[in-house]
Amino acid sequence: MKLRTLATLFAVLAVCATATVDHDKIEPFPQPEPVTVSEKAAIKFKPQLATSTAVCVSFPAVNVAGEITGGLKGTNGNDACKYAPKGSQIYGRSGWYRDVWPSCMLGTFQKGFRGLGSLIGAMTGKAWLWGLTILSWSHRKLCFLVQVRHQILQGGDWQSVVVWIDNPALESSKIVGVSLSKSDTKYYKETTMMASYFAGYQTRSIPYGRSYRSEVISYGSDTTLRFAHYAHPNMDFSTWDGEFQGLIMWEQLTDAAREALSNSKNFGDAKVPFSEEECEKHLDKAWPF
């Protein structure tokens, strides 16, 4: 089914309010064994997320019954969100976009921060960070769009990182570009892949005259990038390894879960980023070649 057709279906499904559950009570979907080309590529190039101990880890957004996370109030630092007792989750979706096949992954952070470990204490109500990853490929390019939305601080804005690889059907496929959002309309685009962007890369300081210099002791992966959620809604390259979240593809979700994720009323004033219109805008703005 093409993405244009799916977007039409979403408009029909997004008609009712969804029940909420305490953020730490949401049961994630188990990650199935990949079978299709899109599922295998999503697992192979799934990035790691490194989270500072001063901020919240990611939490599941929806359960089998279609109930969504209730989030947390924007107070008391990262209390009640230092770890996810039920486990974290990334949600994937795929469908044709022009000549490209996109797969979207969604995860959640329960609170937002400004400054390392400093919560926006003046804010009231609920605050989430929603993470979205879009993978897409044609015969030449595959991309991951790691997207983060800060509901209160950024007024419903979404921040993202896009990772592009060449032909995923090849055993030797590799990452050829990364685009990091600086706003909803601008991206920093990088087509030179540094070894330090990847999981497993390590250095140490050694004496060099009267000072020190860095010496590489491990180059690590060439398929797993590592991104960090520090103390602001943007995603950055991480200087240390992170963790993987369980991936569930869109077609593997229950009907109730898909309806909940498609319902724009569940995400405040922000537009649902799964629509064809929104995906195209992000990919066009992030294109680095």
Automatic annotation (TrEMBL):
Q: Where in the cell is it found?
A: Secreted
Task: Read off the PANTHER family from this record.
Answer: DOMAIN PROTEIN, PUTATIVE (AFU_ORTHOLOGUE AFUA_5G00600)-RELATED
Please identify the protein, giving its name as recorded: Necrosis inducing protein NPP1
Which organism encodes this protein?
A: Phytophthora megakarya
One short Pfam family name for this protein? NPP1
Entry-linked InterPro entries: NPP1 (IPR008701)
Q: Per the record, what is one GO cellular component?
A: extracellular region
Q: Which domain of life is it from?
A: Eukaryota
Q: Which UniProt keywords apply?
A: Secreted, Signal, Virulence
Q: Where is the signal peptide?
A: 1-19
Q: Give the family this protein belongs to, as stated in its UniProt record.
A: Belongs to the Necrosis inducing protein (NPP1) family.
